[in-house]
Amino acid sequence: MGKLVYLVIDGAADSASDSPTSLELARTPALDRVASSSVCGLMYPIEKGVAPESDAAVLSLLGYDPHAYYTGRGPLEALGAGIEIREGYEVAFRANFATINEETLEILDRRVGRSLRSEEAKELAKALDGMELGIYGGYARVKATVGHRAVVVIGSRAYRLSDEVDNTDPAYARVGKISVARPAFDKRVAECKPLVDSEEARRAAELVNAFTRRAIEILKSHPVNAARASRGLPKANAILVRDAGGALPRAEPIAKRFGLKFGAVVEMPVEKGIAKLLGMEVAEVGEPTGDKRRDYRERLEATLGLLERVDAVYVHLKGPDEPGHDGLLAEKARAIEEIDEHFLAPFLERADMDKVAMIVTADHATPPRAKAHTGDPVPVAIRVPGLKPDGVARFTERECAKGSLGVIAHGWELLPKFLELARRAGFL
After folding, report:
1. What's the structural domain count of the chain?
2. pTM over 0.85
3. Are residues 370 and 354 in the same domain?
4. What are the Cα distances from residue 370, in Å, to 13, 69, 106, 396?
5. Which of 277, 330, 341, 418 ranks highest by number of CB atoms within 10 Å?
């Protein structure tokens, strides 16, 4: 039986109304080689009109309708960071260390200028971890993950809590359980509010607000921030939470769902959490160092190693998303080129492509013009040995739109579509 490599390039897509898009600007001979030997199309990672975060989008791309399975990003981040939560009494959140005006609570930078090192974040998290909140027997658990990112768990020893509470990060709005990027927002630390009329939700919101206030008091005078200020760097003097969840999704293992044993090469805690949840073998790779050649070589070796043991490898590479958020078109195009040069090109040379199929896509669009995730469709290429390609010239939004796949309405339809094509071609 053949093997599958499922490559997701985080935030690689832009809007087709942009000219040029980052993919069009980038020189990508390896991506174009895959596209020209594939059937291609466009795809809404969740559905039309939704600007998803990566977590719900990844769950969707792996074949699970987030409307049915998603329980919030917090529990998935926690699982990826090695934290278990007590259902009913703890609520987990994705968190960002941020820079604020301590007097007005104006947010100066939601990500501390992307300059916070993981080692610094871990020291800050230690100062917050185990915080007593003074009401409802409440406490907070805090664990830093990568860079400015963290997991916050708000709990009560005596009272039940609900995860039906809003974000304190104003850049994201909750739509049901799914968080979506706001195109514009009030740049102040938001008050956490209950989203339903229940004592459990009111308690949880009060505890979150108590944590937020106390965290600002602790962080503003922390030695890490004093040292950063002395070097002219922004202080990580607040922590913003979003995407509450009080339980993990109840999802059948991906091997049972699709009849393929999956492995995963993933960088961020939320992707690790999803992979663990679905029973995938997770390759251990280091967090990104900034040395793209080294980082992508490590991920390439992990991919090739997993291919010897599993049927399908899900590879999620973060690169282009950050410059997209920062509004940097040329830098985003360069980030795509680095994946092409240091990961995909050597993979195509080293793998036996007569025995390996590929899916290449993005989990969402992050146009530099928007500086945020948008609801635009993303390009998708499905390469199956023995399947006649469309003759698409490049892996770009406009070129892939010419392909025979048309527009795939939901990301969770992509793996079933691949399986259908692979079986038709006699590959599986």
Report:
1. 2
2. yes
3. yes
4. 12, 29, 21, 18
5. 418
